[in-house]
Design goal:
There is one protein chain. The chain is an alpha+beta fold. The protein folds into two domains: 143 residues, Isoleucyl-tRNA Synthetase, Domain 1, CATH 1.10.730; 89 residues, hypothetical protein PF0899 fold (2-Layer Sandwich), CATH 3.30.2320. 56% of the residues lie in helices and 9% in strands. Helix 3 crosses helix 8.
C-alpha cells in the first residue's frame, strides 16, 4: 500500500510541476516547431514517442501493470531526474517569450497531454482534474481525447542513441559531484566547476552536443581538458570537481567572475534591463 501511495504521489507531483510551468503557455500561439527546438528538447520529444509506443503495445496486450511501470519509470528517470531538473534555470530566469523557454514549455505540454491520456484508463479522476487546468482545451473532457499518436522524425534514431550515451556520461559526472559533496569540496552542484579529461569517445560525444553542457549538468562551469588531470576515474574519463571561484549572482545563483552593481551576472542583468524597457 505504501509503495502504491508513493507511486501515485510521484505521478501527481509530476503533473503539478508540468502544469505549474504552463500557466502562461497557449499551445496555438506559443508552441515551438520541432525543427526549431533545441537538440535536447527534440530528444525528449522522441523519448516520449518511445514511451507512447511501448505503453500502447502494453494496453493492446492488457498488461496494465506494465503500463504503470513504464510511465512511472519515465516520469522518475527521464523527466524528474533529468529534464525537469535542469530546465528550471531557463523556465525561471529567462523572459516570458524567450524561444528556449517556449521550446521547453512545448515539450512540457506534449508530455502533459500524452501522459494524462495514457493514464486515463487507470486513474481517470486524476487525469480529468489535470486536464481541467490545461489552457486552450480542445475538448470538454479528457475522456473525449484520443490516445497519443506516435510520430517518427528523421533524426529520431540518431538522437536517441546520442543522448542515451550522453546520459551515461552524465551519470559519471553526477557521481563525481556527489563524491565532491561528501568530501565537503562543494555544496550545491551549481557552486562547482567540473573539468573532464575525456576518452576519445566521450570527447567526440561532448563536442557533438548542441547545447550548454554546464546547464544540463547544473554546474557553473564545465571544461574539457586536453591534458591529463587529477580526479575521479570513470568510464568517460577523469573528472575533477572543484568549487567555482567567483561571485554568486543573486538572481540565478550561478558563480561568475563579475557582477553588476545590482549583484547580477551579465545574463541576468540583460534580462532585467529588457524587462524594465517594456
Amino acid at each position: 500500500m505504501r509503495q502504491t501511495a508513493e507511486t501515485y504521489r510521484k505521478i501527481r507531483n509530476t503533473f503539478r510541476f508540468l502544469l505549474g510551468n504552463l500557466f502562461d503557455f497557449h499551445y496555438e500561439t506559443d508552441r515551438v516547431k520541432y525543427e526549431q527546438m533545441a537538440e535536447v528538447d527534440q530528444y525528449l520529444i522522441n523519448d516520449l514517442n518511445v514511451l507512447v509506443e511501448k505503453v500502447l503495445n502494453a494496453y493492446e496486450n492488457y498488461a496494465f501493470d506494465e503500463v504503470n511501470r513504464l510511465i512511472v519509470t519515465y516520469m522518475t528517470n527521464d523527466l524528474s531526474a533529468f529534464y525537469l531538473d535542469f530546465t528550471k534555470d531557463v523556465l525561471y530566469i529567462e523572459t516570458t517569450d524567450n524561444p528556449a523557454r517556449r521550446s521547453i514549455q512545448t515539450v512540457f505540454y506534449e508530455n502533459l497531454k500524452a501522459l494524462a491520456c495514457l493514464l486515463t484508463p487507470i486513474i481517470p479522476h486524476t487525469t480529468e482534474e489535470v486536464y481541467s487546468y490545461v489552457l486552450d482545451r480542445s475538448q470538454k473532457s479528457i475522456y473525449l481525447l484520443d490516445m497519443p499518436k506516435i510520430t517518427k522524425y528523421a533524426n529520431s534514431s540518431e538522437l536517441l542513441q546520442k543522448y542515451g550515451d550522453f546520459l551515461k556520461l552524465r551519470d559519471d559526472v553526477l557521481k563525481a559531484l556527489e563524491l565532491a559533496r561528501n568530501e565537503k569540496i562543494i555544496g550545491k552542484s551549481f557552486s562547482s566547476k567540473v573539468v573532464i579529461y575525456p576518452t576519445e569517445k566521450a570527447k567526440k560525444l561532448l563536442n557533438s552536443i548542441n547545447d550548454d553542457v554546464a546547464k544540463i549538468f547544473i554546474v557553473s562551469e564545465f571544461v574539457i581538458s586536453n591534458d591529463p588531470i587529477e580526479g575521479s576515474e570513470t568510464e568517460s574519463g577523469i573528472i575533477q570537481v572543484t568549487a567555482r571561484e567567483g561571485k554568486v549572482c543573486s538572481r540565478c545563483w550561478k558563480v561568475v567572475d563579475h557582477l553588476s552593481d545590482d549583484e547580477l551576472c551579465e545574463r541576468c542583468d540583460k534580462i532585467i534591463k529588457s524587462l524594465e524597457e517594456k
